[in-house]
Amino acid sequence: MWSMHPSFQIEIQAHLSAPAPSLVLRLQLDTQALQVHGTQLGQRLALPGWPRSGPVGGPGLPSRALWVALPLQTVVSEAPRVRVLRQVPLAATLQALVPQRAPWRDAPDGLSAARPTEARVPALYLDAAAHSPPLVRVLGTQRCGATLMVQVQVQPVQVLPNGQLTLVSELEVTLPLAVADDRPALLGQPVPVSGAQQQRMLALARALVVNPGDVPGPGVRTVKGPALRDLPPCWDYLILTDDTLWNAAAKTPGAALGASLVSAFEPLAAWKTRLGLRARVVKLADIVASRKGSGFGQDFSTGAADLQHIIRRFLRWAHDSWGTAYVLLGGDERIVPFRHLAIGSGSHPSMPTDLYYAALNPSNDEWTEGAKPDIAGYGFERLLPHLSIGRAPAANAAQATNFVTKTCRYEALREGGNPLAHAWLSRILYVSSKWGGDVPTVLTPAASFPPAGDRFAADAARQRTVIHLVDMLPVARDANPSADSPGEGRFSQPSGKTYLKLHLRGTCRNPKTVVALTATGARVSLLHDAAAGPQRPGWYYTDWMDKDGPCRDAMGQNNPTVWLIAFLPSGTVATSLEVQLAAELRLAHQLLARGATADYQVLAHDVQAAAKGKGWCFVASATDAAPLPLEPATGLQKPSSWIAVYGSAAERAPQAYLLDPSEQADTMREQESLRRRIRQDMPGWDSEAALYPDVADLPDADRQGIDLQYYSRERLLARLNQGQHIVSIGGHGNVGLTCSGGEGGSFDTALADALTNGPNCGIAYANSCLTNRCSEDSLSRHLVMNNANGGMTAYVGYADEISIGLGHAVEDKFFADLARTGVLGLALDARAGMVLPGSGFDPTSRDLRYTTFMMGLLGDPALKVHGADREVQSALALDVSTDTAGRLNVLYLRPDHRIAQLRQNPAIGGWSRADVIDRGSWASHLVSASNADGRLECFYIGSDSKIYHLWQTTPGGAWSQSGVLDMRSTARQLVALAHADHRIELVYIGSDDRLYHIHQTAPNNGWAAGAVLDPGSFARQAAGATNRDGRLELVYIGSDNKLYHLWQTAPNNGWSGSGVLDKGSYARQLALGSNQDGRIEVVYIGSDNKLYHLWQTAPNNGWSGSGVLDNGSFARQLAVKPNRDGRLEVVYIGSDNKLYHLWQTAPNNGWSGSGVLTNAGPAKQVALAVNADQRLEVVYIGTDDRLYHLWQKTPGGAWSAGTALLG
């Protein structure tokens, strides 16, 4: 199956049969995605997600290192074999390519010199022409738990002998494999000791590789040692809290809290246990005192430096001894302390982080309180969390109760025993304010006419408004003259530097000249020069990412920003600066009128605005009525510092005008990029809304399917009170607020406290500085912990300042990993993969490592996010069975052909979340049956057409790993039946179309060998039922499309030969049901697509002829089950894909006509099951490949509407 990625798709198949096992990768690139940009330095090839690589100074060619999961206990044995399937010539030559520049490195102090230049080395170009870089090569391997990943580098642009370039758009790579005992290599890995740990490590591996479906499944062991601990003492989920404050340094308890935090968190532990995670609350006092009655009795305190060290020791022991996988830190800084490391930046040098408790690599023991470790060289092993950590920073029991209530309510989708409406789960809100790159100039009313600079006033005589723009921007010295980041409209000389740093307004990013005014009155003019320096006066644009060096766009240009670096001539001291603006660039701005309700109207530029009475144009002065003429060379109006506005009263007298650069704000562009990913990965989150600061610049194509408004504080409050499942926030932030510094007001703690969205509390992700610094009074705490009437259930964000640009890439990865794992904590843990080569990030960046420390989860680490796991939302095939507790169990095939399970969970009044029961499975057809002791058993046809099975190890419990049922058998359809003595009998249609069977030798026991059921039988489809006397009966459609049957000659005994059931019947599909009196009834779809039936004339006896069941029915697929009163009911998919049903009017009697099951469908496959209270339930796969269900409201009564079963 193809796996989709930006700009390419990949299919990977394992061929493990001797003598030449291999892994075959087939890669297809989107040729339309490759762009050739012309720059001053040459041509630059750009392929999204494929960074340029090559020796510094040589030609830079797109390259991608893909991490591929290898089959269990295999290694790559020799060089890959490559076959080119398709290639496309490019309109570029090797010699014309831009040279590759050196990677930009962070300096030890967090600053850097100018970005390295792109200097061409001719010898490297000659070498590349003579020796084209390898198309594919293996770079190395990396482990994530038991999963061995191999790094395969692909360089799709190749050099032809004539120097021309070609894009290999489709290729096949064969990795020869060898069987290897990898257990010694695993001894240094975090080896799981519980099922929960194993599932967690496998999920992390799946988030890192391009073939997540090939990661080995649960139950696979590769390390000698005891079996996974599935019985106590085993605690999958721990909540660490206490009822007292703690002095972390002294390791001593302080004042009591009053109401008990331990008691407040106990309901969450009980809830997690009901969901299948063995959970408990652990008191810090018990850990410090090492009380044996608490279940550990280990000494964690002796020799420990502080309370954090004691907790880390305990968590490492719990991981190794209890199999703990998830930990919730239940308390604020005063109860469960953070580890503080001196790795911060700016005004926050001390970084509070919980990674200390999660990444249990022994090398990380050096992270003592206040330490300043050199994190720049940290690799994957140092940063990989062994535990998924979340925090609930409760200051008191009331806040803990808020957290527990929100978490349980979100997972159960119930409140007070009543189910919650699900509509809000489809809502996702994108919120952004501007970083500063596209900040508009706000023009306010003047007190008199003509207006001063950046003001407007009415010209009543001409029924227009006149705007006066600033020509010369004065820039004063910042209040902190040595500030590294001066305020807007200010300049400074950063400490120890020889240059000046200027911070301009957003619409003044295009100066002609910077003029320095000296104490003597001299005016020194500086021109734009990207190579300016101490010996070369001038100025250039910079940004935060370039740490005061000249910033460059994708084409190597020093592109405009609001930050300037200016070098004055030696000996010159500036008292103030002036920036002369380029008026011509105002043509690239839009004029917006802001109304009283934060509505913005785009006013059209029109040189004939005066004549038309609508629009705006440039004029020569405040009193000049004529518009400035068009320039002959450009056809554009000559710009000036005066604008005349015509139109309605609201257009001529707004609260303010905004002169807005005609380009998308960076935050809006990032949010739109994220929206495209989420729309693809999480299709269930399809009720999209956005609050943006720059709606006018959003392309029309991006406005489709989204409720779009300008950002304002009032609109944000209304949207959040509506109930949003996912909220993505982008913009400047601080500890208690985000979306600051722009139009519309901030999203602050006061707004968080005012939310009244009730039970519809979703999940927030903030690409914003400091908002999740929950060691302080953070915005995240107010949203999740403080607000009992609304807010959010969980919050992902940063405890310090996130780099612009990097923050977006990290958020994009988080949601991609969430689509892979479906679990909030696991998506966060996967951030460790950012430092792996080929991850798409700069693996040498200190900022990247710093991000892993300051990124945190305020929420439940094991929270399964509704609708997040894309793969479990869709189904290829399904089977429904009932266990001994009367619960329905749905087994279905995901798009990756793995088998997943959903089951009713009376404890939460609904259905469990979907879980894959064997990651190692690959199935094309499946059925299930119940053993005599109540354990379900699943049978499926594998990729090699053999029959496999796996079973619950206890009734309703975990599943075994898969095994081959019979090495000699191959099949294309399975039928599971139950003998009178409760042994399972599996009948199957072999690959030769004959009927075979295989059965248990005793109830709950082993299996006999497969055998031919009837040598003369050739079948297309089969179904079975039990006669009243316990004999099994099989009805099948023969190769001639007629109906045949055969039966056991006695209960638990041999079989008869086949016989024609009805010579006149021709069938496409059939199903069997049992009447109340024990007579079997066959319902089938005829060759004319109508519904027919025939039945036993007496129990265990002969058969009637066929009759039309409903002359008006036309069906594609059907299912049959009895109602509680014994009447059979048929549900079928009509030719229009709608769901229909018909039923016996009395037990053992005639039939009704067909009726539509309203508010259900369209469907492509249907199954019918009986609940414990005998209500029928329909489970079906919709035409959108998602799972749905509907049910009788009372036994034999009316039906509910169709409801999504997943997401």
Descriptive tags:
1207 residues; mainly beta; Immunoglobulin-like; Rossmann fold; 14% helix; 35% strand
Task: Give a topology summary.
Layout: E1 3-5, E2 8-15, E3 22-29, E4 35-39, E5 42-46, E6 52-53, E7 61-62, E8 64-69, E9 74-76, E10 81-93, H1 122-130, E11 136-144, E12 147-154, E13 157-159, E14 164-179, H2 183-186, H3 195-208, E15 237-241, E16 244-247, E17 252-256, H4 261-274, E18 279-283, H5 284-289, H6 307-321, E19 326-330, E20 339-341, E21 351-353, H7 355-358, H8 380-383, E22 388-392, H9 397-412, E23 414-415, E24 418-419, E25 427-432, E26 441-445, E27 455-459, E28 464-468, E29 472-477, E30 490-492, E31 500-503, E32 511-518, E33 523-526, E34 538-542, E35 563-567, E36 574-581, E37 589-594, E38 600-603, H10 609-612, E39 615-619, E40 642-646, H11 649-652, E41 656-661, H12 666-681, E42 687-692, E43 706-710, H13 713-722, E44 726-730, E45 733-734, E46 737-738, E47 747-748, H14 749-754, E48 763-767, H15 779-786, E49 794-798, H16 806-821, H17 824-829, H18 846-854, E50 855-858, E51 877-882, E52 888-893, E53 899-905, E54 910-911, E55 915-918, E56 923-930, E57 936-942, E58 947-951, E59 963-964, E60 971-978, E61 984-990, E62 995-999, ...
Parallel strand pairs: 15-18, 15-19, 19-22, 25-42, 25-44, 26-27, 29-30, 42-43, 44-48, 48-49
Antiparallel strand pairs: 1-2, 2-3, 3-14, 4-5, 6-7, 8-12, 9-14, 10-14, 11-12, 13-14, 16-17, 20-21, 23-24, 26-41, 27-28, 28-40, 29-36, 30-31, 31-35, 32-33, 32-36, 34-35, 37-38, 37-41, 39-40, 45-46, 46-47, 49-50, 51-52, 52-53, 53-54, 53-55, 56-57, 57-58, 58-59, 60-61, 61-62, 62-63, 64-65, 65-66, ...
